[in-house]
Specification:
The longest helix is centred in the middle third of the chain and has 29 residues. The chain is built from 12 helices and 5 strands. The strands form 2 sheets. A 3-stranded antiparallel beta sheet has the order 1-2-3, with no helix packed on it. A two-stranded antiparallel sheet has the order 4-5. Helix 6 runs antiparallel to helix 12. By secondary structure, the chain is mostly helical.
Length: 278
């Protein structure tokens, strides 16, 4: 019989994005129990925003997160534009959609790479980081920045798509369609990676609803919820986006870490198709 060990993690740890303390009960590599004490960081974003005008809040909201910065900007700008009944030109909506999908690409590739790092698959992590550079180069070509792009403003965007940027985007799509499949194959074909992700961290559909899971986490549990489909914004209504769920591809949703990896990888392909159409 294997001996049980309890390992404390947190509240500050390189693998944690927010302060949280976990006491994990292990039998070998398998976590058989966990005690969680969540924490919180109050950065005062809302408080600081109260004393700023809408243009100034753009720069504040873009710094809520360094990975999904543009999504926060769009959420704020749409609130302002809806409240003021301020129209956004169609071309600006398409450019916003383009940047949102470029951001989704780099975010998903980063997540998948870090997931591999977290299970000790360092070579796949490095492959993911190499692949991510291409979309980061495109974002830099478009805005001048790799992070916090400064693209959107109230009522539209600050940058148009130049012929040079359009060429870079087309080359990026071609690159990923040729190269990204290798990353998927390396991870899904590795028996150790699969053993460390399949049936691990299972979130059932009922639990996903109860805990208010959203985005790829909810979709990996088999729940068809994608705001781009349910409540299209910007130019998404023109692209007929459908929520990606594991059961449509593999017959069943396990709701585990492996499914959360698969959903993000499949959404990379979906984002490439949207970018190409934009």
């Amino acid at each position: 019989m294997e001996k049980k060990y309890t390992i404390p993690i947190g509240p500050v740890h390189v693998g944690l994005k927010e302060p949280i303390t976990a006491w994990l009960d292990l039998e070998g590599e398998k976590i058989v129990g966990a005690t969680i004490r969540p924490g919180a960081i109050h950065r005062g974003i809302e408080f600081m925003a109260r004393d700023r005008n809408p243009i100034q809040v753009i720069y504040l909201s873009e710094r809520i997160c360094g990975i999904c910065s543009f999504a926060h900007v769009i959420a704020f700008l749409r609130a302002v534009e809806d409240a003021a009944e301020y129209p956004v030109p169609v071309r600006a909506q398409y450019i916003r959609t383009l940047v949102l999908e470029l951001e989704r690409l780099h975010s998903h590739i980063l997540w998948a790479g870090v997931a591999c790092y977290s299970i000790g698959f360092d070579s796949a992590f490095h492959l993911g980081m190499v692949l991510r550079e291409k979309v980061m180069d495109v974002l830099e070509a478009l805005s001048g920045n790799r992070v916090n792009y400064g693209v959107a403003t109230v009522g539209g965007v600050r940058w148009d798509i130049t012929p040079e940027v359009a060429k870079a985007v087309r080359e990026m799509v071609k690159y990923y369609k040729a190269e990204f499949g290798a990353f998927y194959d390396v991870v899904t074909a590795d028996p150790i990676a699969k053993a460390r992700m399949r049936n691990v961290g299972v979130l059932t559909p009922d639990e996903a609803v109860r805990y208010n899971a959203v985005g790829p986490t909810a979709r990996a549990s088999g729940i068809r919820c994608d705001i781009r489909e349910m409540s299209p914004y910007e130019a998404y209504a023109d692209f007929n986006v459908k929520a990606i769920v594991p059961q449509d591809y593999y017959g069943k949703a396990y709701g585990d870490v492996f499914d959360r990896f698969l959903v993000r990888v499949l959404e990379v392909q979906q984002s490439l198709n949207i970018v190409e159409r934009v």
